Amino acid sequence: MSSVDSNLNAWERDYSIRGRLWGGGVRGIPHLSDGTSVLELGCGDGKTLAGMPCSWKIAALDVSPQALRLTRRMLPDIRLILADAALLPFREESFDAVFAFHVTGHLRLQGREALAREVARVLVPGGKLFFRDFGTEDMRMGQGEAVEESTYLRGAGILTHYFTEVEAELLFCDLLPISVGTHRWKLRVKGKEMARAEVEAVFQKDRSHEVL
Ligand SMILES: C[S@@+](CC[C@H](N)C(=O)[O-])C[C@H]1O[C@@H](n2cnc3c(N)ncnc32)[C@H](O)[C@@H]1O
């Protein structure tokens, strides 16, 4: 089963029924120079894209045609591609930066490993990966049907894997870790404080293999 098979129906159904799923602004978009070529994996309905400056050369992909339609309505000028993050339709060294915000954790282990290899392949030497996904300390960890280690299927059929910092480093072992940490905050649910946690990391492709 490809990583697309395991995700597409659930995501497509969700976007078709509920429309835009991700509200609010996105925090922590890094400063990158004008003209930087950027790829966003699993762009959804465009929440993260909406926070990126239009001076970047942006391409974005998702497995859900409905998600891409929703993004297109909001951001008519961005290059959008229907594709699997684990099988990227780009040549080696195509991008200066890749964003993977809340997408890697929606793939099973084999898919996550393929995604990590693909990111390393499409980044230019010195290029950066900006990674963000829920951590094992998050309040939802353990909810749903366990399908793999720290990986659960919830009601709508969407699979979520919860990361540790060490695991994120191991997954992207073809890249050099620049920073790896956890962003923690509290969410009040029915009068109770619940813990939210995202593992956030920046990785860089080694320059040492560059042909001088
Ligand atoms: C939680 S949303 C994140 C959206 C966006 N990155 C953001 O930060 O707002 C996850 C998205 O990943 C997409 N997705 C899931 N599996 C994928 C895969 N194998 N390849 C590409 N996109 C995928 C889903 O369709 C969904 O739109």
Characterization of the model:
With 212 residues, the chain is α/β, with parallel strands linked by helices. It starts with a helix and ends in an 8-residue tail after the last strand. A hairpin with a 2-residue loop joins strand 9 (176-189) and strand 10. The chain has one domain (3-19, 32-204): Rossmann fold, CATH 3.40.50. The protein is 24% helix and 33% strand. The structure holds S-adenosylmethionine. S-adenosylmethionine binds next to helix 1, helix 2 and strand 2.
Detail the topology: elements first, then pairings.
Blueprint: H1 3-18, E1 37-41, H2 47-50, E2 57-62, H3 65-74, E3 79-82, E4 95-101, H4 109-122, E5 123-134, E6 145-148, E7 151-153, E8 159-161, H5 165-171, E9 176-189, E10 192-204
Bound molecules: S-adenosylmethionine.
S-adenosylmethionine binds at residues 3-4, 7, 11, 22, 41-44, 47-48, 61-64, 67, 84-86, 101-103, 106-107.
